[in-house]
Structures are given as structure tokens and as C-alpha cells.
Amino acid sequence: MRSAWGRIVHWLEANAPASAQALCGPATDGDIASLHEALGLDVPDALEALLRMNNGSTAKDTKQVLSSGRVLPVRHPDAALFPAGMVLLGCAEIAEQYAKWRRSEEEHGIEGYWGASWVPVVQDFEGQYYGFAVDASGASSGFPVLEYGEGSLPGEASPSLGTLLDTFADALQRGRWDGWPARVERGSLRWGEE
Asked: Domains plus CATH for the chain?
């Protein structure tokens, strides 16, 4: 996992430095402890290792305060490091999205819609429709990664977080991932549809 993430960071620093600047610093012990408390389960080792290298890709994000006083996050385009405009979630975003998906399961009464052990890691730019989650159930086969999308139940996408990150690193070097070409514009990585 560390090697795969290192390949991604190296590629960004060499080819898309503006996007590399969207990487947050490492998660602290407090960040990891807060995430553990929010999830109510152990953070898988591979995910913790990733977060301790970069606690998300949202360093350039800002907030907008509405006249009602409500604060809305404003995602910076450089946060979308992964194909299909996906963002690496940090500890706080993981906890927030996990709670949202668990509420959705309870509200809709759909058993298996979002399992208690599924921890979102990479999510679409808007945080609404699709992404990848680590299954932290501790199964003997490790911690597989599930892919989820609007209107469908999550299904296994990769045997591990490291394997998933390797596919993203390979995609950066190839310049495409499953119909999503990668290009660099003024130092920023952009993924588009074919």
C-alpha cells in the first residue's frame, strides 16, 4: 500500500504539482483516535497507514457561509486525484460519510445497503453517488475494497487498498483508467470521460 501511494504522490509531484498541493498532511494520533471512535471499530492497518501519509486530498477546499449561517464545504477541483473525479477522504470526511451511509441504510430499511464494517475511503467529487470503501470486518482474506454507486449495493472491487491504489498509479502512468483519460492542465490533474 505504501509503495502504491508513493507512486501516486511521486507522479503528482512530477507531473501535476498543483494537484499534489491538494494533499493534506499526515493524520495525527488524535485524528485516528477520533475516526476509531466515530466508526466504532478498528481502523484497518492499511487505511491507517494511508491516512498517516496523507489525511485526504482536500487541502485546497474552502467553506462558504450562507446567509442562514449554514456552512457548506466548497470542493477545489484539485482534490479530484482519482479517475471519475474521485477524492481521497481524510479522517473527518470518512467519519462524516460513514455516518451518512449508515443513516441511509436505517432510513431506507434496506439490509446490506451499507454494512457497519464498510469504511468509505475514496468518493466522488460531490460526495453523493459513488466511490470505494474498505471492508473492515477483519475477514481472513484481509480487508477487501468495495465499489459502490448510486442505486446499487456495494460489491467487491479489489482484494486490498494497496491493490486498488496500484491500479490508480498504473492509470496515471498510462494516462487512462477504464474510459477516463487523464490530462494535466496548468499543473492540475483532470480526468475526463471518453
From this structure: 2-180 (3.40.1580.10)
